[in-house]
Amino acid sequence: MLKICKESKLIKRLKSGYVVEHFDSWIEESSLKFEDLMKTYSSSGISYSHSIFDLRNTVILHIQMEFCCQTLREVMKHLLNEINENNSQIIKTLC
Q1: CA angle, corner 64, sides to 63 and 68, nearest 5?
Q2: What DSSP assignment string belongs to 40-92?
Q3: Is CB count within 10 Å lower at the N or C end of the chain?
Q4: What is the pLDDT of residues 53-67, one digit of tens each?
Q5: Alpha carbon of 75 to those of 22, 80, 90: distances in Å?
Q6: pTM for the whole thing?
Q7: Kind of pairing, strands 58-65 and 22-30?
Q8: Are 81 and 54 spatial neighbours (Cβ–Cβ below 8 Å)?
Q9: What are 15-72's pLDDT values in tens digits?
């Protein structure tokens, strides 16, 4: 758990236009049984085979992140188009 907390703090300090901003994170311990969690989160796509789930208690890591309106594929496509345009301008200038 300590490793996860350290990594979360590092990611929070990372600032870049190409990385989703990480605003905050916190850990919640729950006394819910595994079966109850499966009912609660059944439609969320959470993997229940992960080692943080156990029958005694459950540790949940909440992460608050920036909302992104584009997928990584769309961002990469846009960047490649910009690079191609810049290369075309450089070639025209050199000619």
Answers
A1: 115
A2: HTTTTT--TTSTTB-SS-EEEEEEEE---SS-HHHHHHHHHHHHHHHHHHHHH
A3: C
A4: 555 567 778 888 888
A5: 18, 9, 23
A6: 0.45
A7: antiparallel
A8: no
A9: 887 788 888 888 887 766 656 666 666 555 555 555 445 555 677 788 888 888 888 8
Contacts of 14 (CB under 8 A, 6+ apart): 22
Residue 33 CA to residue 61 CA, distance in Å, equals: 17
Residue 65: helix, strand or coil by DSSP?
strand
> Could you tell me the two tokens for 6?
């350290």
User: Do 33 and 55 form a contact (C-beta atoms < 8 A)?
Assistant: yes
Rg, the chain, Cα only:
21
DSSP 20: -
Q: What does the chain come to in residues?
A: 95
How far apart are the C-alpha atoms of 67 and 19, rounded to whole Å? 11
Q: What is the Cα–Cα distance from 67 to 21, expressed in whole angstroms?
A: 9
Query: What six digits make up the tokens of 52?
Result: 């943080």
